[in-house]
Write a structure and sequence with these properties.
Elements (H helix, E strand, L loop, with lengths): L5 H8 L1 E6 L4 H10 L4 E4 L15 E5 L2 E4 L7 H17 L4 E6 L1 H7 L3 H11 L4 E8 L14 E3 L5 H11 L3 H4 L7 H14 L3 H15 L2 E4 L11 H13 L2 H5 L7 E5 L6 H12 L2 E5 L1 H7 L1 H14 L2 E5 L13 H18 L4 E7 L17 E4 L5 H12 L15 H10 L5 H17 L8 H8 L5 H4 L1 H11 L4 E2 L21
Helix pairs in contact: 3-5, 8-9, 14-15, 16-18, 18-19
C-alpha cells in the first residue's frame, strides 16, 4: 500500500494525510486495520447533526477496528461546526487510538479552521491520540499545514505489483499490462467489466483506462497510425535519433533516456502533427494533457497525473498550448502557478522514465526562463512557415488524398504552375494549405466534376481565406524574432528551384 511506515510519522507529527483515489478508499481502510491499531472513523454521511459524545455508535467490524459514525448536516455552515466539534471532542475524550477523518482537510481549509487544527495537534502531543486524514487524490494542503502534516500518496502499481495481482486473480500478467497507470482497484474493476461483457481482458482494460484517463484530464490514444508531415527534414532526422535513444543498444551503452522537446511557432504550422509523428515512429501511446484541469486543481493534482504517466510508460506526453500553464488568471493564482511550475521543473529535471515530453506553444517568451535552460528539454525547435519546397510537399500530400495524379512527382501542375502557386502562398501555414486543397476538392464535387485539381482550382480556393500572416503580421514576426538564437530550425535552407531569390533590404539580389 503506502511505502512509508505510518506509525513513526504519527508519533512525530501526531497527524498525517493519506491520499488515494476514492475508488481505493475501502482498500486503504482495510490496510489500516491490518496494521493492528485501534481506529475511530468519521465522515459526512447523514443529514442530522448530533454531539459527537452523544452519537457514539460502535460497530465491531474486525479485530481492533471500531467504526465511529456521526449524524450531521450537509449544510456548509453546520459542517463548519461539525468538523470543529470533531476536533475538539477528540482532543478532550479519554479514548486513545487513531481517529480517521475522511475528506476533513477540505472542510478545514475551506472554513479557515487551520489555526484550530494546529492548536489541537499541539495539545495532542505526548498522548496516544492521533489523526489520519483520508483525502481524495489531488487535494492539496495549503499554507502552514504543509509543514506540520506529512502527505503520503498511494503509489500506482508497477509491473511487479501487477505480477502479484495477476496471481491473486488467477490471470496471466500480460493480460493486466494495459492497466499500467491505473490504481489497483481500477485494474480490478476493469477486469470485472471484461468478465461481465465477455470481452478480452486486454481490450476491456485498455478501453477502461482511456475512460479513466479522460476523467482525469488525460486524452489517451493508442499508437497513432502512420502519419506524414511535409518538409521539416531536420526535425525528422532528430526523430530518427530519438528512435536510437530508446533502442536496446542505447541502454547497453548507458545513453540517457531523452527528456523531451519544446516546439514554438505560429498556430497551424504543424506542431500537433509532430506529436503524432513522434508517437508513431517510437511506437508509443500518445497522451494529451488537459492544462485547464491541472490549473483548476493545482500542483498536487499534476503530481498525481505525472505518477500515473510514469507508471504507464512508454508514452509521449503532449502539452499543447504549454504557455497556458503560466498565465495567472486572478488574485491568488500566482502562488498556484508557482507551485505547478515547481512540480514541472523537478519532474523534467529528474525524469528517468520512458515518458517523452513534447510541449508546444506560440510565444517562447511566455515561458519562465527556468523551463528553457539546459537539463529541462533536450531540444527547442522553432516551427515557422514552410519554405517553398515544403509547401509543394504539403500540397502534394493533401492533393493526393483526392486526386491520385498527385501521387506522381508533380501531379497535374507544370513547373511554371507550381512556381505560380508557391509564390502566391508564401507565408501560408500547413493548415492553411490543407484548407485550400480540401476546399478545391469540395468545389469540384459540388460542381459534379471528377476531382482533378488544377492550378485554377487551387488559386480559387486560396482566395477564400485570409492567412494568419496577413491578419497578424506584427505578432507573427515577433514570434520568429524572439526565437532566433534560442531555437533550432526544423528545416534546412531551401535550395530548390522554387526558392525565392535572396535579396537585401533594398530589394537587390545578393
Amino acid at each position: 500500500m503506502y511505502t512509508k511506515p505510518i506509525l513513526p510519522l504519527l508519533q512525530t507529527y501526531q497527524s498525517l494525510c493519506l491520499q488515494s483515489p476514492l475508488i481505493e478508499r475501502t482498500n486503504v481502510l482495510n490496510w489500516l486495520v491490518s496494521l493492528g491499531h485501534t481506529y475511530f472513523r468519521w465522515h459526512l454521511a447523514f443529514e442530522q447533526f448530533q454531539s459527537l459524545s452523544e452519537a457514539q455508535t460502535w460497530v465491531d467490524l474486525e479485530p481492533n477496528y471500531l467504526l465511529f459514525e456521526t449524524d450531521l448536516s450537509l449544510e456548509s455552515t453546520e459542517n463548519t461546526l461539525n468538523i470543529k466539534e470533531i476536533l475538539l471532542t477528540w482532543q478532550q475524550t479519554h479514548q486513545t487510538g487513531i481517529l480517521i477523518i475522511e475528506n476533513g482537510l477540505q472542510l478545514i481549509q475551506q472554513q479557515s479552521l487551520n489555526i484550530l487544527l494546529i492548536e489541537v495537534l499541539n495539545n495532542l502531543k505526548g498522548t496516544d491520540k492521533y489523526l489520519i486524514f483520508l483525502e481524495t487524490e489531488g487535494e492539496s494542503l495549503k499554507g502552514e499545514l504543509t509543514s506540520i502534516i506529512p502527505v503520503l500518496m498511494l503509489p500506482i502499481p508497477t509491473i511487479k505489483d501487477l505480477e502479484n495481482l495477476a496471481q491473486q486473480l488467477g490471470l496471466e500478467t500480460a493480460s493486466l499490462l494495459p492497466g499500467l497507470g491505473l490504481c489497483r482497484e481500477e485494474i480490478c474493476q476493469g477486469v470485472r467489466l471484461a468478465q461481465a461483457t465477455e470481452t478480452p481482458i486486454t481490450q476491456a482494460l485498455f478501453n477502461y483506462k482511456i475512460e479513466r484517463f479522460q476523467a482525469l484530464g488525460l486524452a489517451l490514444n493508442p499508437t497513432p497510425s502512420t502519419i506524414e508531415v511535409g518538409g521539416m527534414d531536420l526535425l525528422k532526422e532528430a526523430i530518427s535519433h530519438l528512435q536510437l535513444d530508446y533502442s536496446p543498444q542505447a541502454r547497453l551503452r548507458q545513453i540517457p533516456l531523452p527528456k523531451g522537446w519544446l516546439l514554438a511557432g505560429p498556430p497551424g504550422t504543424g506542431k500537433s502533427f509532430v506529436a503524432k509523428l513522434i508517437a508513431n515512429r517510437l511506437q508509443f501511446a500518445l497522451v494529451t494533457v488537459g492544462i485547464d484541469k491541472i490549473k483548476a486543481h493545482g500542483a498536487v493534482y499534476l503530481s498525481n497525473l505525472l505518477s500515473r504517466l510514469e507508471a504507464a510508460a512508454p508514452l509521449v506526453c503532449y502539452f499543447d498550448e504549454f504557455d497556458k500553464f503560466f498565465e495567472a488568471e486572478g488574485k491568488g493564482e500566482e502562488s498556484k502557478t508557482r507551485e505547478v511550475l515547481g512540480v514541472l521543473l523537478t519532474w523534467l529535471q529528474e525524469k528517468k522514465s520512458s515518458v517523452f515530453v513534447l510541449a508546444t506553444l506560440n510565444r517562447l517568451d511566455a515561458l519562465p526562463p527556468e523551463l528553457t535552460r539546459a537539463g529541462r528539454f533536450d531540444k527547442i525547435f522553432y516551427v515557422g512557415f514552410p519554405q517553398a519546397i515544403e509547401r509543394k510537399a504539403i500540397f502534394e500530400l493533401h492533393a493526393a488524398r483526392f486526386d491520385p495524379k498527385f501521387q506522381d512527382k508533380d501531379g497535374r501542375l507544370t513547373m511554371e504552375q507550381w512556381q505560380i502557386l508557391l509564390n502566391q502562398t508564401n507565408f501560408y501555414t500547413g493548415a492553411e494549405i490543407q484548407f485550400i486543397v480540401e476546399n478545391a476538392a469540395r468545389q469540384c464535387f459540388y460542381n459534379g466534376q471528377s476531382i482533378e485539381l488544377t492550378l485554377e482550382d487551387l488559386l480559387a480556393a486560396k482566395q477564400k481565406i485570409i492567412p494568419l500572416f496577413s491578419r497578424d503580421t506584427e505578432r507573427v514576426l515577433a514570434m520568429a524574432n524572439r526565437a532566433k538564437g534560442v531555437c533550432e530550425p526544423v528545416s534546412s535552407p531551401d535550395s530548390s528551384i522554387f526558392a525565392p531569390a535572396s535579396v537585401n533590404l533594398w530589394g537587390e539580389a545578393n
